[in-house]
Design a protein that fits this description.
The complex is a heterodimer of chains A (165) and B (492). By secondary structure, chain A is an all-alpha fold. Chain A is 68% helix and 0% strand. Chain A is built from five helices and no strands. Chain B is mainly α and 492 residues long. Chain B has one domain. In chain B, helix 10 runs antiparallel to helix 18. Chain B is globular, with a radius of gyration of 22 Å. Classes of the chains: A mainly alpha (165), B mainly alpha (492).
Chain lengths: 165, 492
């Protein structure tokens, strides 16, 4: 189902466009700058041509985005102050979701799939407001087992194994 | 034996057909499930299709593609929320009919129309694709470069509401594609001595991150919000013979319209379904009944959006240029399983092409059976709590990213692109151009390098061929169209 995110609009969007545009301009300058370290041209086409072309285009379009952001920021009437209504509960969920995901990627090579996956699933279930502990535990264990059978046994797809080194 | 018959025999083989059935079923379920799209369904299948032979993998992915587009109509009818953007027009009459207690009939009409649209468009694909591929075989590196420019521009200019943001997404994808070994001299660009970066960003984690993990983050925003559920009766499923007779012309004409729209890169099912809906309403004897549960208002968009499946496969298979977001994902998946779409595919691997033709036809027949048989199960599927569904999807995403090269680094990359994808969605940047940039970037650089090396560095060689000029002209036209659309939208 295409449930879209709450859109950002008005003055706030202008500010965000300025920030994103500026970040991309810096990124394209960095990418362009690094091409000076590339080896000198020996053929009619060198490794620096394409990155320079792309980073220049990205720089120009990002600059246009910044200008559009400034215009959007100025255009609004003074009484139209966009309120930055941060849903703190969502932000916490999002950050914990990313943290749990990151921890999972780091734990997997050490503990292996079978040990790392149930806590990961349980953690994400809690983030999605699951309050029944028995259901969380059972679901984590069953999902881990079913996915193991599906990947490892049926489709012979390798999964990370326990390793101390 | 005719080649297409060989394709049918291949797909109907007991060892291959179950994969098509699984693909279609998974596509329907994912298309119908809250928060998931046909693109996600195709991506989730990838880790499994890696280990299949190319034809079976293609057939399974085509099944998921068709199933996913059809699946979107189920939630559009039952809970007034389109499962995919293509099903947005189906809501207009599907939901009112469901509210009258005739959800079964609405889904039945949608199923019949989708099947007809899919089958007609597959026949068009079988007719047009080999001809277009023969023309494309004449393309040299200059023409291919112009074609990749066209592919990128078209998707970037129509994928989002803002041309600037669409182009930024496309160039961001191209910039990502420059990381790693360059195709001419083998120099490791932007790798900073890190071995993982030398290979560049693998497509699979980028796809998983941008389309699937970002969607999980989006769903985190929905936690605690009331989710619509269908609790009315389903009623009769199949429409009567007289109703089908009335719908015949609408279904056929909408199927052809959808196919035609699908062939044009950058359009997609959403545009086709609304156009077909408007046409059906315009030619109807009772236009006032549209929007109040008229079955023609379900048949027209559904025939058209499934009509785009075969249509969108024409530029994808023959030129390697996707027609819309889902086919952009399909293109990525095909490259990952070792299929390089383009005219050479028809010459070098005709068995794969025939399996795709047969697979698409049979997938649509399966949709008819599965759709009608499982109408009463759909409301139950929609009751799966997000707290169970999304943790499973998240795990599948990570395992899918890992399976590519047995590397947790790819899982990390998927997570990073999930965050990037979420930020992009939140701020109106379309994700499809990024994927296209990552896919078409190396191809564009490769053909550009070949063109320049052949011409001893003469850049004017890119503008000498009439075919190249044709592609540059339509690329410019798509940008102008997008600018005009933005201007009109602002004025309104």
């Amino acid at each position: 189902m295409t449930l879209s995110v709450t859109p950002i609009a008005g003055k706030l969007m202008g500010i965000i466009e300025i920030i994103i545009g500026a970040c991309l301009m810096v990124l394209s300058v960095v990418f362009y700058g690094i091409t000076f370290q590339f080896p000198k041209q020996t053929l009619a086409f060198s490794p620096k041509v394409f990155p320079r072309f792309v980073s220049t285009c990205l720089f120009i379009i990002s600059a246009i985005l910044v200008i559009q952001g400034i215009m959007a920021f100025r255009k609004r009437s003074p009484d139209e102050h966009a309120k930055l209504a941060i849903d703190k509960a969502f932000l916490t969920r999002l950050l914990f979701g990313i943290l749990i995901g990151y921890t999972y990627t780091q734990l997997l090579p050490i503990t292996g799939y079978i040990v790392a996956t149930p806590p990961f699933i349980a953690g994400i279930m809690i983030i999605f407001n699951e309050k029944r502990w028995i259901r969380t535990g059972l679901c984590a264990l069953i999902t881990t087992s079913v996915l193991y059978i599906l990947f490892r046994i049926i489709f012979k797809v390798p999964l990370p194994r326990f390793s101390l080194f | 034996m005719t080649p297409i018959l060989e394709g049918f025999l291949y797909v109907l083989h007991p060892l291959h057909f179950p994969f098509l059935a699984v693909g279609v079923t998974l596509g329907i379920i994912v298309g119908a499930l809250p928060g998931l799209t046909a693109s996600v369904g195709i991506i989730l299948l990838l880790p499994f299709v890696f280990y299949l032979d190319v034809s079976t993998a293609m057939v399974m992915l085509c099944g998921a593609f068709c199933g996913g587009i059809y699946g979107g109509s189920i939630t559009a009818i039952l809970i007034s929320t389109p499962g995919t953007p293509s099903a947005a027009a189906t809501v207009l009459d599907g939901y009112p009919l469901a509210q009258k207690g005739e959800a079964g009939k609405a889904i039945g009409v949608a199923t019949i129309a989708s099947t007809s649209g899919g089958i007609i468009s597959t026949f068009c694909l079988m007719f047009f694709a080999p001809k277009l591929a023969r023309i494309a075989l004449e393309f040299g590196p200059e023409e291919y470069f112009a074609l990749t420019v066209f592919g990128l521009t078209v998707i970037a200019s129509v994928a989002g509401k803002s041309l600037t943001k669409g182009l930024i997404s496309g160039f961001f994808g191209l910039l990502i594609a420059t990381v790693g070994i360059d195709p001419v001299e083998g120099y490791a660009r932007y790798s900073f001595g890190i071995p993982n970066l030398m290979a560049g960003f693998s497509l699979l984690p980028v796809l998983i991150g941008l389309f699937a993990i970002s969607q999980i983050f989006v769903q985190m925003e929905m936690v605690g919000k009331k989710v619509k559920k269908y609790d009315q009766k389903i009623g009769r499923i199949l429409p009567s013979a007289s109703e089908l007779k009335k719908l015949f012309f609408i279904i056929i004409s909408s199927s052809f319209l959808g196919t035609f729209i699908g062939i044009i890169p950058g359009t997609g099912g959403a545009i086709a379904s609304f156009l077909a809906y408007n046409e059906a309403k315009r030619w109807a004897k009772d236009p006032d009944s549209f929007g109040k549960g008229n079955i023609a208002g379900i048949a027209a968009p559904e025939a058209a959006n499934n009509g785009t499946t075969g249509g969108a496969m024409v530029p994808l298979l023959t030129l390697g240029i996707p027609g819309d977001v889902v086919t952009a994902v399909m293109l990525g998946c095909l490259l990952l399983i070792g299929v390089r779409p383009g005219p050479l595919l028809f010459k070098e691997s005709p068995e794969v092409v025939n399996a795709v033709f047969a697979g698409l036809l049979l997938a649509n027949v399966l949709i008819l059976f599965l759709g009608v048989l499982s109408v009463r199960i759909f409301p139950k599927v929609l009751r799966i709590p997000p707290s169970i569904l999304f943790p499973i999807i998240f795990t599948l995403c990570f395992l899918g990213a890992f399976s590519l090269s047995n590397s947790t680094y790819d899982m990390f990359i998927a997570l990073v692109f999930g965050i990037i994808g979420y930020i992009m969605q939140k701020n109106g940047f379309p994700a499809a151009p990024v994927v296209l940039g990552v896919i078409l970037g190396p191809i564009a650089e490769d053909v550009l390098a070949r063109a320049l090396i052949i011409s001893h560095g003469d850049w004017t060689t890119l503008f000498k061929s009439p075919i190249s000029i044709f592609f540059y002209v339509i690329s410019t036209a798509s940008v102008i169209y997008s600018l005009r659309r933005q201007f009109v939208a602002k004025k309104a």
